[in-house]
Description:
- The protein is α+β, with helices and mostly antiparallel strands.
- The protein folds into 4 domains: about 5-135, no CATH class; about 140-200, no CATH class; about 225-335 and about 435-475, no CATH class; about 340-425, no CATH class.
- Helices cover about 40% and strands about 10% of the residues.
- It is built from 14 helices and 8 strands.
- It has helices spanning about 20-45, 50-85, 85-90, 105-135, 140-145, 150-160, 170, 175-195, 315-320, 340-350, 360-370, 375-395, 395-400, 400-420, and strands at about 230-235, 245-250, 275-280, 290-295, 300-305, 320-325, 450, 470-475.
- The strands form 2 sheets. A 5-stranded antiparallel sheet has the order 6-3-4-5-7, with no helix packed on it.
- It is extended.
- Mean pLDDT is about 85; it is low at about 480-485.
Amino acid sequence: MPEDLVGAELPARPSLVNNPFSYLGILLAVASLSTIVFVLLIEFVGGKETPYIGVLLYLALPSLFVLGLVLIPIGMLRVRKRLRSPEAIAAGLAPPRYPVLDLNYARQRLGFAFFILSTLAFIALLSGLTYRAYGFMESTAFCGQLCHKVMAPEFTAYQSSPHARVTCVSCHIGAGADWFVRSKLSGVRQVLAVAFNTYPSPLPAPIRELRPARETCETCHWPEKFFGDQTVTRVRYLPDEANTEQRYTMTIKTGGGGKELDVPSGIHWHMNLKNQIDYIATDHERQQIPWVRLKDPEGRITVYVSKDVSLTPDQIDLAEKRVMDCMDCHNRPTHNFRTPDESVDRALSAGRMDRSLPYVKREAVKAMGQSYSDTERAFGAIDQALTAFYRQNYPEVYISRGASIEAAVNEVQQAYATSIFPGMGVDWKTYADNIGHQPTPGCFRCHDGKHVSPEGKVIRQECGTCHTLPKLVEAAGPALSVSGRGS
């Protein structure tokens, strides 16, 4: 290359970028990149990230940025195609068949340096955003708060559950790329359902879409180490004037054990790895179980069939046979909606409601258990019901204990807001809870005394199989000194 060409300018040619597609791409890329940097700076200096900001920052804006980068070369290719027409070639305006890189020209040196540096910067930026997007889509805020109305029942129940510090994806997805991809593909369908308002109310429990418990739950709850019994005390309050407290104690025969234990026992006998229990459910929620098969450690097989259901051999052969695991009993470990009775008992036991208010247990349960069209109307009706009761029946209490009555109203409203969701048609009756046998059948799906084998063996229903009989250890009510008609 002659010395006089070093630093020379290239001959002028029509700009390939001079077209609407490339201009639109540049606008999208610059605008989205500027917004990303601005939002990142706000977050860096202490701004609070919300699910909607996360969607904007990690999903929407990067998508617009990439779209802009794609539109730029599309427009350039369209212009290049037009400039290679016979007329443009004859006029000497057509670009070379392939781009020519000659670093002896100053413009190309600058352009090449800019291309390399910008490409590295874009790769670094997109890599960081992709990593943050992955983490955001795995976050509890993304799962529970993005579709606020739809997921409000589940997210609210999750926050007060024993798994409140466990991320949603730990149970619903677990480790591995295959279930991550599967969940995101399913999520596209769910997003479309929310966008077009085609989702059902209430949402059906994802019973058949859940990953097997041995790949999720059992990474923390190791069934081979379950053993022994537990003594529990349950506090209940009677719906009488004194709100009489009753304490019951019982021993829960947790039992269990793994392959190294010779004698499996207790409730977790079902999960002992020496046993295998298969069953057939005739409904989607797995509440109707007419057929059970047990394979014991010696390999002996016993089949139990309910007296109330007749299954033909063909129906049994064609039916899905599920191997029993943790989720068949612990099906609501996180998204559990308490009954009004349980919610009020908890509030009384914690001292958040004044037990000395006459009939507060009965009236609170009654007010909370009514049917309301929305939460706002429920709050107003609860306030009116409780205050009217004391104003009419206990005027002295109404005058002298106004603060306690107001606190009781607030507590019942809060209990309602965390257990009942009229907008989604969800309350304590919506989803069956199979741990125990109240208020839904739970254990009695199989342990009903009606499942019998051909040899005459029966799946037992005796209470003592799983726990001792509840024993009343204390019953006391606060002294009341009130004036009123009672009820």
